[in-house]
Amino acid sequence: MTARTGRSEPGSTADSYPRVRPQGDDAVVVEFGDRIDPDVNGRVLGFCRVLAEAPPRGVVEVIPTFRSALLRLDPPSLDEAQLDAALDRAMGAAVAGVRPPRRTVRLPVVYGGQFGPDLDAVASKTGLTPAEVITLHSGTSYDCYMVGFTLGFPYLGTVPEALAVPRLATPRVRVPAGSMGIAGRQTGIYPVEAPGGWNLIGRTPVNLWRMAEDPPCLVRPGDRVEFFPVPPDAWDHSREELVLP
Amino acid sequence: MRPALEVLVPGGHTTVQDLGRLGRQRWGVPVGGAADTLALRLANRLVGNSDGAAGLECAWGGLQLRARADVWVALGGADCQATVGEEPLTPWQPARVARGQVLRLGPAGRGMRAYVAVAGGVDVPRVLGSRSTDLRGRFGGLEGRPLRPGDLIFVGVPEPASRRGGQGARPGSSTGGPPAAVRRWEEGVPRSGGSPAPPVRVVMGPQQDAFTAESLATFLQGTYAVGERADRMGLRLEGPRLDHLRSPDVVSDGVIPGAVQVPGDGLPIVLMPDCQTTGGYAKVACVISADRWRLGQLRPGDRLTFEAVSVAEARAARRELEAEVARVPAGGPAEPAPPGGRGPARWRVRVAGRWYLVTLEPED
Question: ipTM above 0.90?
């Protein structure tokens, strides 16, 4: 077989990106790096955008992650030559700097108290006051690198170094929907109730997962996300998100 | 309007499943769907449904259903010594269940999951493009949960055989012997105490370079057993451990059901349909799509071995599987079913921030 997606990459070394690797016969991984990095993720998102504009036959979905894109394929309808050509074009465009348009999502957050049970612990681990943690966290704008783990969970980066704390030693069995947490240099929001080990410092009243909408996911890969603190008594009044073009 | 079936006993663990919700993985939505797609597709075909109609997936058997309307059903997958009333129900054959009769599945004697297809397909609302039950997300299927006693199952309107070009009640009987796709199923599922099933075929990677060369050989030469922790999320395997060259962790990337990931303890986990959409462990290999259905029939204690094939060989195997499935003729009702089994219209509506399921059911 000559189709590139059908064999390993004899010409590439371990460190040359982008590279194409099979995951079974009905998925292909296109890797742009091996670390969490805004530039690597930018290439992934650019690649996904170019591919999604004219999806080759047999490509069911293109899934961006931190450092790679997963293409889900339908082998019976696949045209391998067409896929290879589309991969080359999209990889070329991504490396050349094509990026998707960026949206900005501004989310109200109630920090601390019952909404952010780990705020005080994060403050003591980082040597900051809770107010400083809030100022630092809400004063940074974040990029959504990918959505995964559970329904609509956005992985956001990059958290300021001063706020980086490891995951909880014992994950919680139940994290309420809307909870916002920190794990290392990442921050994220649980759109639906789930088990989880991130340090919860606040919660947004905005519904990030809308089952009846398409897409059901409010925060999407490539979005810029900003948080603004609201007092606990504003909880019921801040349910509408702000999405800026 | 009446429901078609009533659940008397749900058995081991029974859920509504179709072929899953492909196309929303980038939003974190698990693929889901039948663990043994071959059995569901064949059972659907045997009652004249499209391959992707929703059916009932019953792990371990034990399901009992009472017909509340005349329905055509076909049973596929795990052999459960099923009966309709007092009569044995032959697997892989369409059968009519008259109103009032009880369809009983015994304990699964071979294989793990039985599939009940109903002519017209199980009619539950499509959620995110599929009728499959997502247990962790608690959506799809019947209220996002396993069946319970007293649940009522509605079905869609069956296509009569005359319009499908099928010959009616008994596909297979005119051709002598079971279709090749059924023989494939029989050969692909371990027999208790008998000869082991053939190796499960995999394409190596995408992270096989995270393992030592000896470990890759071990993975392909060793015999694994399915551990006790085996469910619709994943099969934890017991057997020879694999050594990572460096860290078992990779930066999380996309995974699909069938992927074989290896955490720090070196014991492989084969991902199943309800797996997460992304994962952070190195993936040594991925089970090919033509063999993936076999994972759904493995029980704790079953042995399995792996064989590496190329992507080209895997795609050829898939073509062979599709050709066999395509040759299974449509069976089921020769005449359109009288109204009675069709489901009511349903909508999800949101009132004051909460979701409600509204059912509109015309009076008889």
Answer: no
